[in-house]
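2024-03-11 09:14:02 DEBUG pipeline.ingest accepted 1 chain
2024-03-11 09:14:02 DEBUG pipeline.ingest length=183
2024-03-11 09:14:03 DEBUG pipeline.predict start
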Amino acid sequence: MDEGPPTRSRSTDIDFGVDYSYEPSGEDIDRAIGQGAREALPAAVAKSLSPHRKGRTLNRMISWLAALAAVVLAAATTLTSSAQGVPGAVRIEVLSVKPSPPRAAAPFELVARVEFAPAPGSIRCSVWTGGRRYRDIRLVWENSIARCFFRVPAGARGKRLTVALTASLGSSTTRTTLAFRVS
């Protein structure tokens, strides 16, 4: 019986007349996903795994299982990576501001309690006068008390003075900003 030359299928593979489609049996499915695991699946998924459903091929089943495995792997990777960088708690409580309101050409001090849990983090103090950054600042941190002090510029009279205290621990950052009118 002469079948003639091989024909090309739509996927540009050579078709030798062999049917590679395969309908998995219930035992094959149990072997692939684990004994008794099919009962734990939602009804829609269990129905799609039915060996009597037409149009299911081994390739489709493998693709479905590969996609499911990729989703589970991605979820597991996300959970473990977020557990490694668990952010700590950072709290800032302003204890005092002297003098209030600040005076031009006079010393100014901001005292705050900064609490980190579970480990110490970093603290930063930023000052702006009239919208311009002021850099002559001293920050001292002893135990849980942070002191940010500086001399208010003489030309700041009548301008807005903004003092920001920022505390960071890992990916957790807390910022307290105070604004004053310089007298």
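2024-03-11 09:14:41 DEBUG pipeline.report Residues 89-181 form a domain with the Immunoglobulin-like fold (CATH 2.60.40.10).
2024-03-11 09:14:41 DEBUG pipeline.predict end
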